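Deliverable D5.2: sample structural annotation.
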Amino acid sequence: MSQCYTSGDFQKYFNENMKDLGLPVPSTLFDTYQTAVATASTLVGTLATLGKGATMGEVIGATVGLEKLAVAASIGAAAYTGAVIGSIAVASGRSLGCGSRISDLFVFAEQNNLQFKGLAAFYTRNPQVLDKGSSFRSSFGIRAKNSPSVFEYA
């Protein structure tokens, strides 16, 4: 580990990023880098099957082990999944790499098999997922819940 890492930092930064986006974070599914990547992989695979109009409730119903995501059941799955992947990249960059660049997101997605159709477009249209300084961060969750079809994915 690099010298900037302190145990628990990944979870702290992941939760902080998701909460800043106005999205709920259930316990245990995103507590460590490994569990977060495994959860994101399940989300990506299930969403690819269900399509971009799916809600998190539909994703939960089509899988085993994601029941704790019921707190996000009414949110569009494409938006939530994109926010999860972005938040993993932000948290791992901040906790393991002492900061990160946008290019790190693409490397991270490739290395962990989390690429999805529309990946570049999603983060270009939703920079607030990765940019802590964005003034639109808190409205992301509201948009994900009220207008899930506006998110590019699947």
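Annotation notes: Residues 10 and 33 are 7 Å apart (CA to CA). DSSP finds seven helices and no strands in the chain.
The annotation will be released with the project's public dataset once the embargo ends.
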